[in-house]
Design goal:
Layout lengths: L12 E5 L5 E4 L7 E4 L2 H17 L13 E4 L9 E3 H8 L3 H9 L6 E3 L2 E5 H10 L15
Parallel strand pairs: 1-4
Antiparallel strand pairs: 1-2, 2-3, 5-7, 6-7
């Protein structure tokens, strides 16, 4: 079996340095289509397979890029860019597993699906928290007519 490589890419990808000697790869045109690897070439092979699997689950296939590009982001990620697991996200948001899964299903919380496992960006969870902020308005003082 031929190993997937750059020639098999149909969409542009972004390879991110995880800061621990591994890389993550994402497809900007296909939100939620992610993979990882120990090398950049391994990432390319993994994402080609991930794209094929991702496209099986979508109703409308986005058009392919005429000339797919590979963007490599080598700077170390900030703490907010790290992915955390579902149990960690539940603790972060102080909600139950069922509640977080409902938020995902309703599109309130962005999640990334790695096989059977959900992952979350801390920065996106923080944005969700900010979006739920309750603003209390003070009642206007009644003016006295005398």
């Amino acid at each position: 079996m031929k190993r997937a490589g750059y020639g098999d890419l149909k969409y542009s990808i972004r390879i991110l340095n995880n800061g621990d000697g591994t890389y993550s790869v994402e497809v900007p045109k296909l939100p939620g289509c992610l993979s990882a690897g120990r090398t950049k070439n391994e990432c390319i092979a993994h994402i080609v397979e991930a794209i094929e699997l991702h496209l099986e689950g979508v109703k409308r296939t986005p058009p392919e890029d005429a000339v797919p590009e590979i963007e490599v982001v080598d700077e170390r990620p900030s703490a907010e860019d790290y992915l955390i697991s579902l149990p960690q996200a539940c603790k972060f948001l102080d909600v139950s597993d069922a509640t977080l899964r409902r938020y995902i299903k309703d599109g309130q919380v962005p999640a990334y699906n790695f096989g059977k496992e959900y992952k979350f960006k801390i920065s996106e969870l923080s944005e969700f928290i900010d979006s739920t902020r309750v603003t209390v308005r003070k009642p206007a003082r009644a003016s006295r007519v005398g």
